[in-house]
Amino acid sequence: MRKSRRVSQIVVYAILILGSVFCLLPLFWLVRSSMMSSMQIFEMPPKWIPSPFRFRNYTEALTTIDFLRFFRNTLTITASCLIGALISSSLGAYSYARLDWPGKKFFFGLLLASMMLPGAVTLIPTFIGWRLADLINTYVPLILPVWFGSAFDIFLLRQFYAGIPRDLDEAAYVDGAGPWTIFWRIIIPLSKPPLIVIGLFSFMNSWNDFMGPLVYLNEESKFTLALGLQMFQSLHSAQWHLLMAASTVVILPVIIVFFIGQRYFIEGITLTGMKG
Prior knowledge:
Blueprint: H1 2-33, H2 38-41, H3 56-64, H4 67-98, H5 104-114, H6 119-132, H7 140-143, H8 151-162, H9 166-174, H10 179-190, H11 192-208, H12 211-216, H13 225-235, H14 240-271
Helix pairs in contact: 3-14, 4-8, 4-11, 11-14, 13-14
């Protein structure tokens, strides 16, 4: 019995390791190609380790176009969206989970229904609205909507807030605390894992966003890294080694942020929806 259980565990671990290798292979191929010449990338049989390592590919790729400006633009948008997502989603979720007000169930159902609406359906009306407001070619259409909350983020936090015991609220009310004090002193300190999850989602969505900047930004000086990478590809489509180097630099911050916050990411997903 014990031996069969051990064999099954080994099989499960082997499958997980094989799946991890399969998922990481494209990333490895990207990084190794970024340190090769164009001819070495397409050699058959393929070389898995660059020889020699061409670190100058990164210098050439980053100096060909103004990646530093694109990085600042992307960082500005991402930081603004990150702050907006945390503030709006936490406040909205607290209202749905801990406060009683007329029509709460109806509006929460309406909020969930909005998640079923494809973004492509609202793209043209939204663009027309921003154009009438004379805000095209600005960062406002990319930042302001996030400050009104995301349905998924609010739902995720609401499920976590609902699992926090109500006894804490009642004890705070007895001590004379109000809703804002309870939110800031009790709910927020207990919500570190799901807030980090929301922050990770917001960071990755904003950093990797291509459609939004493509639709709303016209001037090259306002481009983000996603648009800059697309422009780099159109200019240097044949220089795959430089394109791979530029792509590696663009995705590197996302990988770093995810590895830093992965423990809280798993913890937040595990705890969300559990009742206390």
